[in-house]
Amino acid sequence: MQVAARGVTQFSYCLFGGSKENRHSFLRFGSDIPHNPNYRTTRILSVLRAHESEYYLNLTGISLGGQKLEGIRPEMFARRSKDKEGGCVVDLGAPLTVVVQEAYNIIQEAMWSDLQHLNLERVERPEFGLCFRATKAVLGSFKPLSLHSAEEEAVLVFSPEQLFLMMHDKEGPIVCLAMKPGNRTVIGAFQQVDTRFVYDVKDSKLSFASESCIHDTVEVD
């Protein structure tokens, strides 16, 4: 990374949500990074090829509402040394989280099954895998989704607000799962909102903690 090459081994950011175009957040370095006693830390994996600029994490499982999803295995998120593909990365440039296809199918099925008692009407949207008509009952029924790392305490939790997008068609409001399937798992920007991420390049660690990120912004003209 260029950051490390300049002698800076720690950097941090905290994304705020909403459409506040008149505010800017900060990329913080070293001693300027806020202390938080609630940081959870996981290891950044070694690179498989020279000049890699992405940080890979050792994701091992996923749970919905505190219940581990059966069928999701650590090898689904492993980097393949043969073709150097797969794995799990954190990427600010990805708008939404992408989950490797096999795990995505399990997540989607578990969420839909969990909401079946509400008799929801499923809606087809070409850009999303799980969409349904929004009702007052369903808006209070979503459960958080948690990503588990090899370190037991390093659990990254996506709140219900980070999991679904509200949109409309001619018949009314629709709710869609704000994730997409792909060839590897990528934690996107929408799911990073209100979480501070701290990268320690020297010690190969990533720490994260919930934070109201709007408080680490300034108003601009």
UniProtKB/TrEMBL annotation:
Gene Ontology MF: a single term: peptidase activity
UniProt entry tagged with the keyword Hydrolase: yes
Location of the Peptidase A1 domain: 1-209
UniProt keywords, alphabetically: Hydrolase, Protease
Keyword Plastid: no
PROSITE patterns, sorted: PEPTIDASE_A1 (PS51767)
Pfam families: TAXi_C
Gene Ontology annotations of biological process type: proteolysis
Domain of life of the native organism: Eukaryota
InterPro entries: PEPTIDASE_A1, Peptidase_aspartic_dom_sf, Plant_Aspart_Prot_A1, TAXi_C
Cellular-component GO terms for this entry: extracellular region
Name the record gives this protein: Peptidase A1 domain-containing protein
